[in-house]
Amino acid sequence: MAALATAEDVSRLWRQLTPAEGERATGLLEFATAKLRQLLPEVDSWLDQGLVDRDLARMTVAEAVRRVLANPHGARAESIDDYSYTRDGSLASGELHFTDAELLSLRPTSVTYGGAGGAFTIMPGRWA
């Protein structure tokens, strides 16, 4: 299956990518999409049914890749003479990940099983 986002989407969120960054972004976008589909196996179905906004899914995948590209070595802090800079821990890992808030935003508000007005309605929240 195709990636949910493109290198151009990453560029829109961040800045113009170099050719090397564009190639890396393309690979990371495929990985991010596969990872999202593993974490939320029904995401494609939800997208097709209009239960989840396709643009939100696209930009969520692009944002996960942007975080990696913005800090490829996973640097947490840097300092030179009197200058020092510390990155937020969630941005400093250098690993591709989705935040809990991002994953929650990609779940439908409610999912009904058993057809329209079915017997079971599940309100997704946090998961293990």
UniProtKB/TrEMBL annotation:
InterPro entries in the record: Mycophage_D29_Gp19
A UniProt-annotated Pfam family: Phage_Gp19
Protein name listed in UniProt: Gp19/Gp15/Gp42-like protein
